[in-house]
Amino acid sequence: MVEKSNNNFGKKLASTDKKTRDNAVKSLSKFLSHKKNLSDLELLKLWKGLFYCYWMSDKQLIQQQLANQLGSLLLKIPNEMVFKFLRAFWKIIISEWNGLDRLRIDKYYYLMRRMHYYTFKFLEKVNWRKQYVLEYVDLYDTGPLCFLNDKIPRAIHYHICEVFFQIFEEAVEKSVPKKAFQKLLEPFIDIVTFSFDFILIEHATSEIFLYLYKQLSKGKFLLMQKKI
Predict the structure, then answer these.
(1) pTM for the full model?
(2) Where is the protein situated, by its record's location annotation (predicted)?
């Protein structure tokens, strides 16, 4: 029954008719809000449909609205499904990346940023609970920031480094426990410690660690010093 629903969603999400796609996204939000047992394969099929739903969105305002709709699903679905849902998202992004033309890459960068934004929103929602912070670190270590996997486009690595703190500062409204903040940095520590990609090391060094040092030296970056 669930598989049949997924197939229906996939067809409607990839429809050439905008109204059909919009209705499918709304229905999907309701469908996911109470599903706790979707398989990895089912989530991949859903994200394949969502990928092409976003592909069909040509106007910038429509793209932005849809990206926020998709990202905000992380705040609506059961907590235990959030990182399974995110893992499926990143797998589809990575597998479809080389098929993107120059005109579409920027809009998918935007979608990536909104998904990352709502990931931080989710972590804040659950009060940076250790279980979910560890799932976040594992997701990025084995997914979009896994520098040992040659199948992951380097452009994705670089972009995440470039926008990490921009998104973090935009998304997080309350103070963050020091241990949780330190955990968030582990994928970047792994990059500068173990990667042989000198461009990636430079990105992680300048965009993450030098930026953090400058902010701390100015007394501007205080989130990680406070307790909830």
Answers:
(1) 0.93
(2) Nucleus
